[in-house]
Amino acid sequence: MTRPFIFINSAMSADGKISSTLHRQVRISGKEDLARVDLLRAESDAIMVGVGTVLADDPGLRVKSRELRDARRKKGQQEDPLRIIADSRARTPPSARLLGPGCLLAAAASAPQDRLEELSSKCEIIVCGKDQVDLEELFSRLYEMGIRRIMVEGGATLNWSLLKLGLVDELYVYVGAMLIGGEKAPTLVDGQGFKEHFPKLTLCSVQQLDEGVILRWKPKT
Ligand SMILES: NC(=O)c1ccc[n+]([C@@H]2O[C@H](COP(=O)([O-])OP(=O)(O)OC[C@H]3O[C@@H](n4cnc5c(N)ncnc54)[C@H](OP(=O)(O)O)[C@@H]3O)[C@@H](O)[C@H]2O)c1
Fold first, then answer.
1. Which atom of ligand 1 is nearest the CA belonging to 23?
2. I need a labelling partner for 140 at 20 to 30 A (CA). Which of 146, 182, 210, 220 fits?
3. What's the structural domain count of the chain?
4. Is any ligand 1 atom within 6 A of the Cβ of residue 153?
5. By residue range, what is the domain housing residue 103?
6. Does ligand 1 come within 6 angstroms of the Cβ of 11?
7. Which residues fall within 8 angstroms of residue 1, CB to CB, at 6 or more apart?
8. What ligand 1 atom has the least distance to the C-alpha of 22?
């Protein structure tokens, strides 16, 4: 399958949690790391999240720095990369911050028609997959649309599906100097988990940022 380059960027606590048992956004990284994330966004054609992250955090997913936005415009790009939501049942609230021009919602064929109609005035909609978004089909269609580099910003369930399908080329994991705990708190990768044939990673770089470290990994093929 021809698909874009796909990388995950996530921040987790020292005990591997990306949020708390309340499933609300936790500020894990600091100023230096947020600038790094902004640069990664600006260098991407699209930013993707699962609907769980939209419901929990209501992220805007825009490039924040004026300089980076200007640089994109000078290159003939939109100031913000395309914002993509994997949302099989079209559960994204119409008030979600990431909706609007430059947003694409990927839904399954079984999504309620009235939900799709309501959301279609606020974003582009792609239907792929019967009951759940077929990620391989989605990426192949995004490639045809000219999307070459996708940054995935969570959450735990979408990360799992992507890794299980072998669709991740790189992982940036910021490990923050804090503990969250809680057996029901989301971790970097949730889903059903691997029982055997655990994917192995190659460590590409380690860098201290703020009070934590950023690790860059590549899945071994
Ligand atoms: N620290 C960080 O860097 C960071 C970043 C992002 C999020 N978070 C945290 O992560 C938590 C949200 O994670 P989450 O696991 O609940 O939600 P998620 O991974 O953001 O979204 C999962 C949902 O996406 C939908 N989806 C559609 N197609 C899918 C597919 N092929 N595979 C998997 N999912 C698919 C599914 O719902 P449908 O079946 O209804 O479509 C699924 O339940 C929040 O607590 C948030 O704060 C942390």
1. 45
2. 220
3. 1
4. yes
5. 5-219
6. yes
7. 136, 139, 140
8. 45
